[in-house]
Write a sequence for this structure.
């Protein structure tokens, strides 16, 4: 840690020695706010226009910035996912288009655009058409409330966390529309599986957010990020993931997020060997690409919310690193979480539907409620070390009891294959 | 166009209520009746919010509270109502409320 | 309050509600019902009660619409196109609508101007829920638990 401090301090110390401390503070502040200032500069051209023009222009700027950033991230992610999966599986991955295969997303996009858009003859045309739009719109809207940096929340609303979940819940209707509108039994079965798992895991997802909301006393993401500012001993951050309840809630939230975005090990709705591609079976061309995009945007949204709630949002991990612009920290944390998504996909096998459901209702949900109580214990013990220890003890107690109760009547032994041999 | 006033909101909500009533009275499918009831509840909630908004301010958010409780109760009602529909369907093999006319199972 | 937004939301809500009441295909009706309730939520936003609007979307679209759609799929059998439409219902609904509109028109006390910028924050709602409305809140919690258990008991397979 001392080494890290020294390195982190190197640049400011150098600047101070050369008498440029003032400049340093200003430069880092300017870099931190560069996008906010740029937006204000662009809006200053509309100074004479009526109020509502300015508001609409401001919203449009926010939306276009959001879409530009996340579409780029989507392209990069689709490439890096394949590259990293390939590394995990001892392959090369895409490396033909452009240097190191960097232009692969462009090629994929062109391929998707020029493919024929097939709508089944017996499909319900309107519902079939509206489903991808609804799903993509929900995913994009959910991205809007996340604070990406200091003063950089695209859409500020009182109760932003609730907005996130309200928008996320429309996703289920979209999936149903895709499955039902296709008029295909695989689509329908896939949609039913997807909705069942989304509904089941929405409960732990929301209940693990509750402790954070309770402790900060606010449903606004900005306030939650602000509550995680500050450093104890001048260096260690006050992120909620470093409290016992926060760590457990973060893990539960992340697992529920994996399910909500239909990622492996929970990608039961699109098992190729069982139900083709689930609710996306009858989609082709650009509509399929939009489903793909919505899935990734949903992944970004869940990871972004995890960063906001538990990993301190745009705050730097050490107080000495605060000169780095806040949005860089946010996207660094987001990148780490996305890497974990890919890593899990490359590592874990899929689980069965019944295993997934019993895991949700018998383990995730009780543990989520445990986190709520642990956060209350932590709060009423004065938010200090003793509170941490008490809440940790409570969580361990419940965990041990739960694992003992769930393990009753189960025999763990090497799996025997009765039919394959 | 004028800014919307309280009577315009009340008219919208009255129209919504009557559409719900129409669905509940004239359709024979049990799920339509449930949809109609839910729409009538939503219309009542809209009325509460409108009266709160146009009432004397600052007032305690009574209308908001009543609407929140109404939404919770509507959710409970939908869950039980749909469970009833499923139970009736299992028993009678129909969801047409006109055909469910036996007191004995 | 924006009159253009009001007009747009009113048309959307009412047309979706009419579609929900009159469409033949059950799934279409259920989806229109979801749209109509999103329209009501938009009205809540327009009236400054953002929290209630969000709760409305969350509960109705996320839970009730999905429940309805699931029930439709579980109770579908081959041809249930018996489609009775009871015209006396239309008459009664129109009569009720006329009476309500007449009452609204004839009440001069309703023509009050709204104070600008009235909203209710989540904090206010939370404080009200935890102070004045604790007992209703507990009762709703009990009701929801009872509804959960009751629904489960109702749909359990009958023992034959």
């Amino acid at each position: 840690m001392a080494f890290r401090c020294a390195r982190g301090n190197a640049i400011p110390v150098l600047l101070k020695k050369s008498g440029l401390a003032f400049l340093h503070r200003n430069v880092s502040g300017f870099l931190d706010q560069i996008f906010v200032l740029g937006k204000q500069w662009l809006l200053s051209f509309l100074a004479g226009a009526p109020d509502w023009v300015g508001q609409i222009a401001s919203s449009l700027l926010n939306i276009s910035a959001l879409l530009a950033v996340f579409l780029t991230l989507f392209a990069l992610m689709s490439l890096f996912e394949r590259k990293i999966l390939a590394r995990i599986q001892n392959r090369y991955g895409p490396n033909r288009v452009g240097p190191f295969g960097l232009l692969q997303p462009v090629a994929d996009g062109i391929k998707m655009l020029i493919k024929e858009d097939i709508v089944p003859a017996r499909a319900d045309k309107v519902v079939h058409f509206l489903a991808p739009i609804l799903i993509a719109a929900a995913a994009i809207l959910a991205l809007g409330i996340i604070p990406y940096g200091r003063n950089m929340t695209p859409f500020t609303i009182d109760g932003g966390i609730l907005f996130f979940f309200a928008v996320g819940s429309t996703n289920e209707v979209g999936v149903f529309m895709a499955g039902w509108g296709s008029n295909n039994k695989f689509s329908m079965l896939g949609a039913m599986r997807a909705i069942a798992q989304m509904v089941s895991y929405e409960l732990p997802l929301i209940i693990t957010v509750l402790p954070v909301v309770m402790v900060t006393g606010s449903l606004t993401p900005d306030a939650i990020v602000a509550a995680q500012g500050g450093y104890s001993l001048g260096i260690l951050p006050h992120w909620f993931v470093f409290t016992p309840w926060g760590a457990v809630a973060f893990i539960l939230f992340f697992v529920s997020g994996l399910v909500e975005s239909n990622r492996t090990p929970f990608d039961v709705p699109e098992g190729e060997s069982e139900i083709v591609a689930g609710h996306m079976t009858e989609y082709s061309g650009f509509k399929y690409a939009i489903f793909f995009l919505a899935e990734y945007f949903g992944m970004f949204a869940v990871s972004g919310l995890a960063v906001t709630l538990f990993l301190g949002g745009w705050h730097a991990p050490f107080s000495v690193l605060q000169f780095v612009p806040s949005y860089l920290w946010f996207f660094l944390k987001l990148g780490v979480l996305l890497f974990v998504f890919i890593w899990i996909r490359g590592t874990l096998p899929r689980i069965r539907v019944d295993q997934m459901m019993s895991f949700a209702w018998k383990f995730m949900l009780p543990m989520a409620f445990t986190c709520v109580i642990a956060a209350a214990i932590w709060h009423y013990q004065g938010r200090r070390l003793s509170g941490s220890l008490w809440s940790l003890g409570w969580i361990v107690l419940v965990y041990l009891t739960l694992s003992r109760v769930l393990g009753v009547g189960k025999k763990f032994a090497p799996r025997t294959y009765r039919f394959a041999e | 166009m004028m800014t919307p006033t309280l009577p315009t909101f009340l008219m919208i909500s009255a129209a919504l209520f009557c559409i719900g009533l129409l669905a509940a009275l004239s359709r024979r499918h049990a799920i339509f009746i449930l949809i109609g009831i839910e729409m009538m509840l939503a219309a009542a909630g809209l009325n509460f919010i409108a009266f709160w908004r146009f009432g004397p301010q600052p007032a305690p958010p009574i209308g908001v509270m009543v609407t929140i409780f109404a939404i919770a109760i509507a959710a409970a009602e939908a869950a039980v109502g749909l469970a009833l529909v499923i139970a009736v369907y299992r028993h009678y093999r129909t969801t047409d409320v006109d055909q469910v006319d036996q007191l004995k199972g | 309050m924006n009159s253009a937004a009001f007009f747009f939301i009113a048309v959307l809500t009412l047309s979706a509600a009419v579609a929900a009441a009159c469409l033949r295909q059950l799934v279409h009706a259920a989806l229109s019902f979801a749209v109509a309730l999103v329209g009501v939520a938009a009205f809540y936003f327009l009236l400054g009660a953002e929290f209630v609007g969000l709760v409305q979307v969350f509960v109705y679209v996320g839970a009730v619409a999905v429940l309805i759609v699931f029930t439709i799929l579980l109770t579908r059998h081959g041809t249930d196109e018996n489609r009775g439409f009871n015209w006396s219902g239309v008459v009664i609904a129109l009569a009720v609508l006329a009476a309500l509109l007449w009452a609204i028109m004839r009440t001069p006390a309703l023509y009050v101007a709204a104070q600008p910028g009235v909203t209710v924050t989540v904090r206010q709602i939370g404080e009200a829920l935890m102070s004045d409305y604790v007992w209703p809140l507990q009762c709703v919690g009990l009701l929801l638990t009872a509804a959960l258990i009751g629904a489960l008991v109702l749909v359990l397979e009958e023992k034959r």
Notes: Chain C has a mean pLDDT of 82. The CA atoms of residues 127 and 133 of chain C lie 9 Å apart. Residues 121-160 of chain C form one domain.
